[in-house]
Each structure stands twice: as C-alpha cells, then as structure tokens.
Specification:
It contains seven helices and twelve strands. The protein is of the alpha+beta class and 301 residues long. It folds into two domains: 24-140, PH-domain like (Roll), CATH 2.30.29; 190-299, PH-domain like. Strands 4-3-2-1-6-5 form a six-stranded antiparallel β-sheet. The protein has a six-stranded antiparallel β-sheet with strand order 10-9-8-7-12-11. The longest helix is centred in the N-terminal third of the chain and has 10 residues, at 12-21. It is rod-shaped and about 120 Å long. The chain starts with 11 loop residues before the first helix and ends with a helix.
Amino acid sequence: MSKIPIAPKKDPEMLQYMEKKLGGGKVLSQKQFLDHDRKVLRYYCDFNDRPFIITYFLADDTIEVLEVHSQNDGYDSFTKLLARRKLPGNSEVKQPGQAFIGDNYLTCDEIFADSVVDVFGHQLRILGVDEYTQKYYITKYGRTFPLGGHYPPLPRETKPISVPPHTNLMGGEKDSLGYLKRLVPQRPKIDEFKALDNDKKILRFTARFNTRVPEDFDRRFIISFYLSDDTISIYEPLQKNSGIVHGKFLERSQYKNVDKLPAIITPTDMPLGGDVKINGYSFHILSADEYTGNYLTQYYV
C-alpha cells in the first residue's frame, strides 16, 4: 500500500535566503510591513489613576497612546496623549555637547508584564492586554500577559423624577410636564379624532355651593364640560341684589379628581343630585339641560 506523500514544512529563513541568493527578496522594512500590516498590540495601562491604552503597530514599530474617558470624569476630552510615532527609549533633553536621542526606539520585545512604559515622562503601568496580544507574546516570546485592564465606572443610580403639582396658573398640566422631558418643550399633542368628533359638544350643569355660609348658600353656578378635550369652566350668572359680581368663576382647564388621583374629572363624576369637588370648591349638582340629560342617558346609563 503506497503512502501519501507529505509536503515538507517550509523554512521561512531558508526561503528568504534562497530568494536573496537568486537576486530577489524584500527589504526588511518592506517585509515587516507586508507580514504585519493591520496587526496591532494593545496594552491597558494606568497613570495617576487615569486609564490609557497603548497601541503598538507591528507593521512599523510605531506607538499610539489613547486616553480613556468616562462620563463626568472631570478631564478634558483629549483623545490622544501621543500621536502615532516611534517612541524613543530615552527622551531626556540633553545639554549642548552631550548625546542626543539616538536610534534606540522602543520595540515590543522590550515590554514585559507589570512593567512601566516611559512615554515622554509619563510612566504608564501595564495592567493587562487584549486576547490577540496575549497569544502573540506566548507564541513568539513565551511570556504571559494578563487579560483585561481598567473598567469604566458604574453609572450613577438614577432617581425617579418628582412631578410638582400643577397650579393651573399658566398653561395646562401637559405643558408643565413638557419641561421634564425637554429643555425647550414642544406643544402637547391633542387627540385629533376626539376633538373633531366632539367639537362644540358641551354638557351644562346647574350647581350650588356645599356650604353653610348664608351669603354663599343661594349662589348658583353653570358648570360647562367640553367633550372635545375634557375641560371644565364655571360661570356664575347674575342674581339681583345678591351683592356678588357675576361672570367667569373658574377658567377653562382640566381639573383633577381629588378622590381618584391622578385621574381628571369626567361626566361620571358629576351625577345629578350628587357632589363634586373642582379646584378646591365643593359643588352640589342640581340639574342639567336637555342635551346633557340625553347624552348621559345614552352613554353612561
């Protein structure tokens, strides 16, 4: 039985030697770029309790240092501590006549776990690396780097929004609630179908005060309920020799049912012969007009 031939394993160093012997091959810098293009090593570092990320580009041995920001960390949002470039091994400024920065630049084989990388005076302590960097060091140098590094702080606990009670002094309750969601509130949306179907449909009730005060006992009021937007207005008609100025008693608006908060007052809360509290006033419903009676009989009985 014939054996299947196995292709010999290629020796990269021998292959490079043969290419150069035949007049070919690549320049070392070009070979490094072609072999390691888009391959980067990432180190998670710490400096003065501030997180940084060192990105090492294997294609040309350049380094980029990024500062990691979190929400409300109190620091200016500069993204780069160091733009992409080669990092010299010694960045001290020499006096005239002394040695200057030479060609000794930092390479990845000079970086160790729990070591410090000097970036122009910033001592960045390595906390960990990503998964690709860990495998790269194990395969090529036999070193082990811990995974991970710094983690963003936990967000602050959100508190429920407390809605202040509406005073009915300006606008409606929906207008006031708009300030809780937007700095410049938008106009509240209305139920257009309800407004069109119930346009100019008004329920009118006759009422009096629930009081023992003699001056207020004979006062009468007309409560108007607008079906288009569930608003209420109260008008006090003229009574001769009462000593009270007639006219508008309560501005048209939606009013809360104090017994069923946060619900608003509806026609079911104003039964004939019953009581209703509107804006702090207690009224006793005496009667209703013919249209109101037919409407209540048709929809609520």
